[in-house]
From TrEMBL:
Designated name of the protein: Methyltransferase
Species: Planobispora takensis
Example GO BP: methylation
Classification via CDD domains: AdoMet_MTases
Gene Ontology molecular functions: methyltransferase activity
Record keywords, A-Z: Methyltransferase, Transferase
Location of the Methyltransferase domain: 60-149
Amino acid sequence: MFSPQGPSLRELVIQALSSVEHGYDLLAPKFEHTPFRTPDDVLDATADALRPLGPFGRGLDVCCGTGAGMRVLEPLCRGRVTGVDFSAGMLERARRAHPEAGWVRADVRALPFAGSFDLAVSFGALGHFLPAERPALFAGVHRALRPGGLFAFPIGAPPPLTSPRYWSLLGFDLAMRVRNALWRPAFVMYYGTCRLSAVHDGLTAAGFTVTTVPLTALGRREDGGPRCRLVLARRA
């Protein structure tokens, strides 16, 4: 899972015992060499699905990390693209990789934008928000978009109950809950709280019109359903 250039076990333990913000500051120098970085095939599938809906004006990457989402935004947006994250370490790496983009340090639960963007994307970030925090996130993205603007992000289908992946993700979530019950500050990262139905309801409550499209390039499950869908939430 990790390349030789990735973090050591000791570094991962230190990160896991930190807050989310400080943990990502610590991980930032080696983040590109971890499985936590969104794979290029997911980014490319997202870009392919969005291309017929564009071109777009200005673009925003919500919880941008080291800037992998620029692979999607830069070809699709005619205006300037911006990344927002609350980890200074991740933003420093993003700025080095994409100096032409704009970078803003902010808590995305209180985004400092209003009517500024035509397309917003996010990759792998929803698990860092408790269900009670998602309304503020979705409301902020809705506010940041211009009328008719689009918020898009991929979301994986839940693995079958009989699959090893199901039990590994469940075990991870349980371990995180035990860790957060025993240790402060909390490190919020849960895989089981981002079901499509809950995300759909939260986006609708924030004022979005929500559809999804299958990202068939990422494969199908044994039951024939797509492994991943792209959520398309449009501000009316």
